[in-house]
Amino acid sequence: MLDDLLIRNRQWSAQRNADEPGYFARLATRQSPEFFWIGCSDSRVPANVVAGLDPGEVFVHRNVANVVHSSDMNLLSALEFAVDALHIREIIVCGHYGCGGVRAATEDLPHGLADHWLEPIRRLARAYAVDLARCENMDELRDRLAELNVLEGVRRVSETPILQRAWADGEPIRVHGLIYGLKDGLLRDLDCTVAHGDVMNGKMTVYGRE
Ligand SMILES: [Zn+2]
């Protein structure tokens, strides 16, 4: 299996260099991605591929169910580097429908450490229980919860001292919330972009259900 992977890598590298001579030499000197992507670890939602971006164009942090924990040093370190060192202006929190992490957060079963990790999603499900109860089935409920998890992620990223400081310095950074459909390969804008000076006021909307 690993041999196959290494063979495919050599083929890809050779093809890339044939298409664009000097490609890797240029890319090795610096990275200047336009986007910072916070997404789910799910193998079906690779940031570069679904966004149609090449190596060097998106700086990526992924974890189970794209949860933004306000004390996650891994995420915060990547966010700080993206903002302060790479001067990225577009931050994307991207969830996806059919997310196994969101599903686990709605199940009354023990999942070990994942239950600690997914606690913010369980909390969202409790906070929006009345809205979510209007969903016609569990699949729909989980998809609405995946959307809420993205909105919450956008809010939490926006509230970090990293973003607050950058905005105070006049940096034109925007934080977007997207959700990806495994069934159609499409990204949807959840229309919850936070930009300089904005705040996410009031209660979030469960999309598609006012
Ligand atoms: Zn997922």
TrEMBL record:
Keywords: Lyase, Metal-binding, Zinc. Zn(2+) binds at C40, D42, H96, C99. It comes from the Bacteria. Its EC number is 4.2.1.1. Pfam families: Pro_CA. Reversible hydration of carbon dioxide. This is Carbonic anhydrase. The lineage of its organism: Bacteria, Pseudomonadati, Pseudomonadota, Alphaproteobacteria, Rhodospirillales.
